[in-house]
């Protein structure tokens, strides 16, 4: 066997592992669009609180805390509720266009620009799912997402797509799991098998079935080692092919579905599943096609087809160059994040890739919630967070103290950011006084923690973060 033949076989193997079925690209595009619509719908429930000048983070406070990036959000053009609602509606429409396959490249660009604007407008309500969402939308700009439908009349050959962009998109997903695995291996709880038990003792993030799983320690220990093994073996998502890749990908999808019904993680599980769809091989999509009626057409096929990259070779070359540069950047940033390479001088201490430190190196051992006793003009005391009477007892379910995952993230940052405390207290005051004659005079923010001790009694501690006059 000569050298040229060996190189050819290596290239064939490389291409096989980084090639993506066109139907997987279509499913990926539709999933990203759906995620964006769901994300907007959940954020609208706290539109005033988190994205207007009448909320807990007015633009003036954002400018003080993040002066370098605040101007780059389209949402900072106004603090009015109707303007924010209009921009969120536009974001949702971009997601619908991406879902339906209408002018895919433009829809992906608008989705990314608007999503970044939403994230910059309030960085205190973000988690790892938001970071991955931005990354996957970036890669969607470079991928051929407007091609074949999952089911189409023309039974043209389905040729796998292998480009620098498919390399980057697949590596992006694996980087999340691999980086998280490396950080988890540095913690003692994951190696002892107790980490997942601690996670499901965190009453402020468990929901649904997750509230009951804490009573099954042996099951949680098994899940601990299984998930750690999957994370360590995540590079096999790329190294394996065929049935083995299908089994591993299905396992990760199943794990994220489990997270979605047990933990309050926002869009994180859905975004991860969107990225995992790219790993499913042709055999899976052949099976999917058999269950799709012959009359079903991709809405994308009804729009005028325009292939910018085929008519403008220069654009295609530029996009390929951007994809190659992005792949190199992806590898470098993650190498720095996990400590394989020293960060260049001047690099911020917390680079964005550290968003992959989910429950790592060890999960927190504290359940926490807030109490916000407020005094009205009449002397009556209420809880400014809920609007009901003050109750200092340990809640039956700490997750009920948060209107949603975004509120949990924001209140977690309030504990660490004194400037946010004044802003939050002002929001509580204005929210109450706008609709009540008996106005609120002052409010106290109290942070309550309960340290988890497996098999032992747990102690509740209270910390007053400050009392603020409504005037």
Instruction: Give the proportion of residues in helices.
Output: 40-55%
Instruction: Report strand %.
Output: 5-15%
Q: Quick one: how many beta strands?
A: 5
**CA-based shape:** globular
What is the helix tally? 20
What does it look like?
There is one protein chain. The protein is α+β, with helices and mostly antiparallel strands and 471 residues long. Helix content is 54%, strand content 7%. It has 20 helices and five strands. The protein has helices spanning 3-18, 22-44, 47-51, 59-65, 81-100, 104-121, 128-142, 164-184, 188-192, 195-199, 210-213, 217-232, 236-239, 242-262, 268-276, 282-290, 308-311, 313-337, 405-416, 418-433, and strands at residues 366-371, 373-376, 381-383, 440-451, 460-469. Strands 1, 2, 3, 4 and 5 form a five-stranded antiparallel sheet that branches. It is globular. The termini are far apart. The model is unreliable at 297-311 and 345-353 (pLDDT under 50).
